[in-house]
Each structure stands twice: as structure tokens, then as C-alpha cells.
Design the sequence.
């Protein structure tokens, strides 16, 4: 598994503990989904303004969001399985952890799991798909041992 990181924000310091948690989260999604772990994914950390621009430009939604996922079409795969790109809004990591009353580490892990599931084809546009995706998220988070109130602040 190869994860490429790009830090384009100054909201929080990206630590080795954070990248380790992201790697464990991606690994657990692949394990739960029974997929080969020979994959590549890029993870970018951005601020509110940049993610709003991306959301506007690629989804026609002119507002900030917590995470965006950009899957790679299978026709571009060469040697390893390139899943796609994940863009995480670090400000939302902080805000949502506070809003939901859990740690920033738990929020970062959840957003990673959520976005990797998107890269694998899960979605939550209609209610039936949302139920399936939420069930997979819960299964992965439980398998990680990251309960809602878990973990230190990052």
C-alpha cells in the first residue's frame, strides 16, 4: 500500500501519528472489503477556502465540506491499483470532532474510512445506498477499535 501525502494547510500540524492512523484506516477498509492491499491513494490536507473551490469546481456546490474523494477510473491503472485522491479539510476535522464530542483522531480516521469507501464505489445519495455505506463505516471503525469517544487529541 502506498499513500502519498500533500499538506497544503496550516490549521494543524500533520504528525507521524496522524499518518499512521490514516494508513491503519485505509488498511482496515481494504481488509474488511476483502481487497488486495497493493493500492495507491493520495491524501491532501487543505483548508476551508481550497476545499470550497474544489467542491465548487468539481461538484457545483459552492460551500466548504469536510472531505472530497476523487476515484480513478480503472482504465488508467498500470501496475498497482490506484484508488484515487482524498482531500481532507483540516478545519472540519477540528470543528466536527468538537461538534460530535469525540477526538480529532477519531474524526480523522472516520473521514479517511468514509472517503476510501467512496473511492471503492460506495455512496450516500439515496437512502438505501446511505444505509449500506453507514453500515460499512461502522464495521470498519469497530474493526479498528475506534469507538466514538476514543483517542487523544491530535
Sequence:
Amino acid at each position: 500500500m502506498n499513500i502519498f501525502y500533500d499538506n497544503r494547510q496550516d490549521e494543524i500540524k500533520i504528525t507521524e501519528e496522524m499518518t499512521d492512523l490514516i494508513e491503519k484506516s485505509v488498511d482496515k477498509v481494504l481488509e474488511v472489503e476483502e481487497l488486495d492491499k497493493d493500492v495507491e491513494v493520495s491524501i491532501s490536507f487543505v483548508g476551508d477556502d481550497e476545499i470550497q473551490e474544489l467542491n465548487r469546481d468539481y461538484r457545483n456546490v459552492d460551500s466548504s465540506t469536510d472531505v472530497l474523494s476523487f476515484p480513478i477510473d480503472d482504465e488508467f491503472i498500470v501496475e498497482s491499483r490506484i484508488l484515487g485522491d482524498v482531500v481532507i479539510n483540516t478545519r472540519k476535522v477540528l470543528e466536527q470532532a468538537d461538534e460530535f464530542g469525540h477526538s480529532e483522531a477519531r474524526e480523522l480516521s472516520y473521514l479517511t474510512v468514509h472517503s476510501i469507501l467512496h473511492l471503492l464505489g460506495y455512496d450516500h445519495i439515496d437512502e438505501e445506498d446511505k444505509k449500506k455505506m453507514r453500515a460499512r463505516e461502522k464495521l470498519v471503525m469497530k474493526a479498528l477499535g475506534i469507538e466514538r469517544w476514543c483517542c487523544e487529541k491530535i
